[in-house]
Design a protein that fits this description.
Layout lengths: L2 H7 L6 H15 L6 E7 L3 E7 L3 E7 L11 H17 L7 E2 L9 E4 L2 E9 L4 E2 L5 H20 L8 E2 L2 H12 L9 H21 L6 E4 L8 E3 L5 E3 L6 E4 L1 H10 L5 H14 L9 H18 L2 H4 L2 H20 L7
Parallel strand pairs: 8-12
Antiparallel strand pairs: 1-2, 2-3, 3-6, 4-6, 5-6, 7-10, 9-12, 10-11
Length: 340
């Protein structure tokens, strides 16, 4: 469990909000700022806040300490992500949350809080609204923006290390983490066998894609409805960008297709069409989309499994069962489902 999660777990429930507020004040001061107002947004890969400052306008503050038992990134990996954001802002037309330095020029100063030393970052806020259900036009724009991101990655091959790497090993690790549910789960042995088979298939296909810059590079890594917003002029934007991840580019497409699997197939097809528009000549092997959808679902469920409250949630266990008997079984049987 991360040091911040451990600290919070030791406090009474009614005192945790106050601790998050104190943390925001301490982290803001690390950047030489005094916030007029701070709004706690949540605690996932880090504690995130919207900060209203008198001079700089709205900002995103993040204290990089993950929730639950998930392992946090190294300082080097977080800095790589922030440097990548700066590159996107400078060399592309992709709207990004541009990182801002502290008074000493550091993009990742340390905040000292209740005996902990935690890295924090500050980024410009992107204005926009979350959209629960994408229209087909918005979905096409999501695919187009994703494709332009990956085209920029292709022009800037990364040598980032110590960062999240979505590959066959990652898929197998996610499978093993999810397997920890076996003793307390109602999932049948046959269903777990389908999960094992699907993870093996996904791992082999992902590794077979290789790591050349045309197929592998910097990805967003978590394109879900919480991280996609639409500006007042209709422009689609991605947020929550500070964590660098490297993977086959199809990882992002698989995550988005999985996260919007509740919508009509026309939305998912529009997303893929927009992606193809941005990356003409792209070849997607048979069942590759299904493979990445399955890998993305496995990764998401494995992360939820690391949060104690989720492990006891009936809805979470239902979702695991549906994953095993749906995505995994279809992938093993060679049944296309990503765009159906």
């Amino acid at each position: 469990m991360s040091a911040l999660s451990d600290l919070l777990e030791q406090q009474p429930d009614d005192e945790r909000a106050g601790i998050y507020d104190e943390l925001a004040q301490a982290a803001t001061r690390a950047f030489g700022l005094e916030a007029r107002e701070s709004l706690f947004l949540g605690h996932n890969s880090g504690a995130a806040y919207r900060i209203e400052g008198a001079e700089l306008g709205s900002l995103l503050l993040k204290v990089h300490a993950p929730q639950g038992r998930s392992e946090g990134l190294s300082r080097h990996a977080i800095l790589d992500g922030l440097d990548w954001l700066a590159t996107l802002a400078e060399e592309s037309d992709i709207p990004v949350q541009t990182p801002l330095p502290d008074p000493h020029g550091s993009l990742l100063p340390t905040v000292h809080f209740r005996g902990l030393s935690l890295p924090c970052s500050l980024q410009r806020w992107l204005e926009g609204d979350h959209v629960g259900d994408l229209s087909t036009d918005q979905a096409r724009d999501v695919g187009d923006l994703m494709g332009r991101w990956h085209a920029t990655s292709q022009r800037h091959p990364t040598t980032a290390d110590q960062t999240v790497r979505y590959d066959g090993h990652h898929v197998k690790q996610a499978r093993d983490n999810l397997r920890a549910l076996s003793p307390i789960s109602s999932i049948t042995r046959d269903s777990w066998h389908a999960v094992d088979q699907a993870a093996d298939l996904a791992g082999r296909l992902i590794d077979s894609i290789g790591t050349s810059p045309d197929v592998f590079g910097v990805v967003h890594g978590d394109l879900n409805p919480d991280n996609i917003i639409v500006a007042a002029d209709g422009t689609v934007q991605f947020i929550d960008l500070a964590q660098l991840a490297v993977a086959p580019y199809l990882w992002d497409l698989g995550v988005a297709l999985y996260q919007y699997s509740y919508q009509d197939f026309s939305v998912r097809r529009a997303m893929v069409a927009g992606y193809r528009d941005a990356r003409p000549g792209l070849t997607i092997p048979p069942l590759a989309l299904e493979t990445f959808v399955c890998a993305a679902a496995l990764d998401n469920l494995a992360f939820q499994c690391s949060i104690p409250a989720q492990r006891t949630s009936p809805l979470f266990h239902t979702n695991v069962k549906r994953f095993a008997t749906g995505f995994c079984r279809d992938l093993v049987d060679g049944v296309p489902f990503a765009l159906e």
